[in-house]
Amino acid sequence: MTRSRIAAKFSELKNSGYKAFVAYVMAGDPDDETSFRLIQGLPDAGVDIIELGMPFTDPMADGPVIQRAGQRALEHNMTVQRTLDMVKDFRKHDDRTPVVLMGYFNPISSFGVDIFLSDAVEAGVDGLIVVDLPPEEDNELCIPAQAAGLDFIRLATPTTNDNRLPCVLRNASGFVYFVSITGVTGTAEAHAETVQPDIERIRAQTDLPIVVGFGITNPDRATSIAEVSDGVVVGSAIVSKMGNRVSVQEVLTFVASLAESVHAAK
User: Fold this and answer.
1) CB-based burial of residue 96 (10 Å sphere; 0-12 exposed, 13-18 middle, 19+ buried)?
2) Hey, which residues are catalytic here?
């Protein structure tokens, strides 16, 4: 089996002594053209993996910042198909940077699971994060996704206890996304000393890289979290700048400062 772009990226980073920087942006926010220019610029800004949000009307895991981004995207008629088309256009110029789609099962189910997976692979998607499908529902999407060649990234949280963790990890691939706080995105700050025991606990049960997201808002915070993990996800802090109508270049400058901080972690 060909090694996935995600696995290749983590291997490359590990060999170079770097931690992974994952940037979350919402597809279509604030509009197609601006969103695509931002996505195109992320790799040169130091982003190792792009997490691309698929807008949904009921995003239960997302805080106000990303909810508003999803609403802006929906108002500009962003759809699952157009999100996949955006990835396909990105792949015309970048065949190395992993792209992970983050979203909810309802739009995928409405699109048709088999068609979605086939189109996602064709577009150049590398993995999925679907936050409202528990491990008990793996046959719905996780297993078919992996059969199609897509990684299925599973979320673990501070409330995922040792009895639950093996179930969460059983069919996970790509990396484990550790949610550093209880609650939704963009509502609290992550602290390295708080997340480290959980990361060590998860690491004892999996060989997958562990990447920490939620509550990471600035370069200093990104560095401290990266020092105790395999990587960092920043989403709301980036998306909020798009909501404030900051220019794409200014957003990319901020992203570059985060990437530099993560890559400086030891």
Assistant:
1) exposed
2) 51, 62
